[in-house]
Design goal:
With 272 residues, the chain is α+β, with helices and mostly antiparallel strands. It has helices at 3-30, 47-63, 93-98, 171-184, 197-205, 219-231, 254-266, and strands at 34-37, 44-46, 68-71, 83-91, 104-111, 120-128, 133-138, 143-145, 148-149, 162-165, 190-192, 211-214, 235-237, 249-252. One calcium ion (CA) is lined by residues 88, 91, 221. InterPro entries: IMPase, Inositol_monophosphatase-like, Inositol_monophosphatase_CS.
């Protein structure tokens, strides 16, 4: 896959994410309600989540009929090309519900299966329809916020690092995550829980956060954001040198990454 091909895929991802993002925002302005719950009573899905994913799928099938699609709200579509689109139609659904302006459309395309342990991410875009911000990266082509080239912060020590994190929807997982936080919070500048992993990762690329960690993320939460961090000069991974996965994702600039990873693993972020 050449850089040129990755940037052509990024063009498709950007066009689709910005188009469906505008429609999602219009729908949000007309009102919103919970349609169903998924893994727990606080894991909600709205019509905007479902309709946005349906629009993304239709546009992808039109533009890239041979590729697979792996999205949060519908069945996996198996393709024949070896490329897979990894889609979170709304990352930050609780923010969408409460009209907090931090939710995003996240679309990535990967070479290989829709599994972060085995894929090679080629392009990714994270669009915040409320702010109009478009974070994007193509493999080998750097990361951008609109026209601005992004670089992670790289002169930060962990005690002065602003760290993002997130919590799952299951009560028992949250209890463990709160215990981990007890050990992390006194060792860093402060914690942010923005409510969208895709925007957390994009924020690292833009220098708005120094690091991030979360256990239990799904592939669609981080596929685009992790590429954006890497292309902005940051690092992303899991425990013990493994790639990022549901077991653990840690991200940050090179100056905090190793220390943050060691801290959260010691605190138990990769267990339970
Ligand atoms: C969630 C968000 C949140 C993270 C959760 C994710 P959703 O995605 O990314 O920040 O903490 O783990 O599930 O449900 O809003 O698409
Ligand atoms: Ca998500
Ligand atoms: Ca979602």
């Amino acid at each position: 896959m050449t850089d040129h091909a990755a940037s052509a895929l990024l063009d498709i991802a950007r066009r689709i994410a910005t188009t469906v993002g505008e429609t999602a925002l219009e729908e949000r302005r007309r009102g919103i309600a919970v349609e169903a719950t998924k893994s727990s009573p606080v894991d909600v899905v709205t019509a905007v989540d479902r309709e946005t994913e349906a629009r993304i799928r239709a546009m992808l099938l039109d533009a890239r009929p041979d590729d697979g699609i792996f999205g949060e709200e519908d069945e996996t579509h198996v393709g024949t090309s070896g490329l897979n689109w990894v889609v979170d139609p709304v990352d930050g659904t609780v923010n969408l519900l409460y009209d907090i302006p931090a939710w995003a459309v996240s679309i990535a395309v990967v070479d290989g299966p829709p599994d972060p342990l085995h894929w090679h991410a080629l392009a990714g875009v994270v669009v915040n329809p409320v702010t109009g911000e478009v974070f994007e990266a193509a493999r080998g082509g750097g990361a951008r916020l609109g026209a601005r080239e992004l670089r992670v912060n790289d002169d930060v020590e962990l005690p002065k690092a602003l760290i993002g994190t997130g919590f799952g929807y299951a009560a028992e997982r949250r209890r463990t995550q709160a215990e981990v936080l007890l050990q992390v919070l006194p060792r860093v500048r402060d914690i942010r829980r923005i409510g969208s992993a895709a925007l957390d990762l994009s924020a690292i690329a833009a220098g708005r956060l120094d690091g991030f960690y979360e256990r239990g993320l799904n592939p669609w939460d981080h596929a685009a954001g992790a590429l954006i961090v890497r292309e902005a000069g940051g690092r992303v991974g899991g425990a013990g040198g493994a790639p990022e996965s549901a077991d653990l994702l840690v991200a940050g600039g090179p100056s905090v990454y190793d220390e943050l990873l060691a801290l959260v693993v010691e605190a138990g972020a990769a267990a339970g």
